[in-house]
Design brief:
This protein has 273 residues and is of the alpha+beta class. It is built from four helices and eleven strands. The chain has a single domain, classed as Ribbon (Umud Fragment, subunit A). Strands 1-2-11-3-4-9-10 form a seven-stranded antiparallel sheet. A hairpin with a 2-residue loop joins strand 5 and strand 6. The two termini are 40 Å apart.
Length: 273
């Protein structure tokens, strides 16, 4: 940002010299001196504002963006009321208003927590492609399936572990949204055939297509994920969460005050894994 001088440069007037100094009753001023600080042009202020906005938009589009967690689909990794920063450079930032991506410095890996644009969800026409955060499980070429609620990848079981034991479990159920799986279901495989009617806990085996991923929520019985709307294309990935910079309990305390009185201090600075 260019700065203008705070006052004009001092100088001696045309009559400077002994005669000028001795002239009684007359004040002498340097050439060009007005006694006022010139106003900074409006254009300079406008350039500063526009520059700051452009820097903000660049950082938000290509480097880091803030997100809020509105649902419990990733409990206990992410809680409702968490605010987090997302690294948008890791997989290659998406150029706004285009379908182009810049190169990233890492490839998506199994177990990553990922922010992405959802494939179209037929049951919510008002917002069919929301931005979501889930955990990546199925890689391109993987054979994925569930039996009794346990995820298998290429025949290997992937239990969630004790950290997720407190998540609520519900009875198994079919859902019309699972019907997208039918064309992908393997009728014969070394893992057995896909069930005729996929359910929440019994589906697959399915082969993940090239440049696609299977995403599941950590809170499996309270997560609408790839089981409902399918595989996520590589170009839909938007980044990887870094850490929680602010968090509060949205169900505790008094409305309008809980954001200040119900802060989860232990969550602040929590790195997401």
């Amino acid at each position: 940002m260019a700065l203008m001088a705070g006052s004009p440069p001092g100088g001696r007037g045309r009559g400077s010299g002994p005669a000028a100094v001795g002239a009684p009753g007359r004040a002498t001023r340097g050439a060009g001196s007005t006694g006022r600080t010139p106003r900074r042009p409006v254009w300079e202020n406008l350039k500063s504002i526009v520059g700051a906005v452009l820097i903000f938009l660049f950082v938000r589009a290509f480097l880091v963006e803030a997100y809020r967690i509105p649902s419990s689909s990733m409990v206990p990794t992410l809680l409702v009321g968490d605010w987090l920063f997302v690294n948008k450079l890791v997989y290659g930032p998406h150029i706004p208003l285009t379908k182009l991506h810049l190169p990233g410095y890492a490839d998506p890996a199994r177990g990553d927590v990922v922010v992405f644009i959802s494939p179209p969800q037929v049951d919510q026409p008002d917002d069919p492609t929301p931005t979501l955060v889930k955990r990546l499980w199925g890689m391109p070429g993987d054979t994925v399936y569930m039996r009794h609620g346990l995820l298998y990848i290429d025949g290997r079981p992937y239990p969630q572990g004790p950290a997720f034991a407190e998540n609520e479990k519900q009875p198994d159920e079919p859902n019309p949204l699972f019907d997208w799986q039918r064309p992908y279901g393997l009728l014969t495989s070394r893992f057995g055939p896909a069930p005729a009617q996929p359910t929440h806990d019994e589906w697959g085996p399915l082969v993940v297509p090239p440049a696609h991923y299977l995403m599941l929520g950590d809170n499996r019985y309270n997560s609408k994920d790839s089981r409902y709307w399918g595989f996520v294309p590589r170009e839909n990935l938007r980044g990887r969460p870094l850490f929680v910079y602010y968090s509060y309990d949205p169900d505790a305390g008094l409305p309008f005050f809980r954001a200040f009185t119900e802060i989860r201090w232990r969550r602040l600075g929590h790195w997401i894994r």
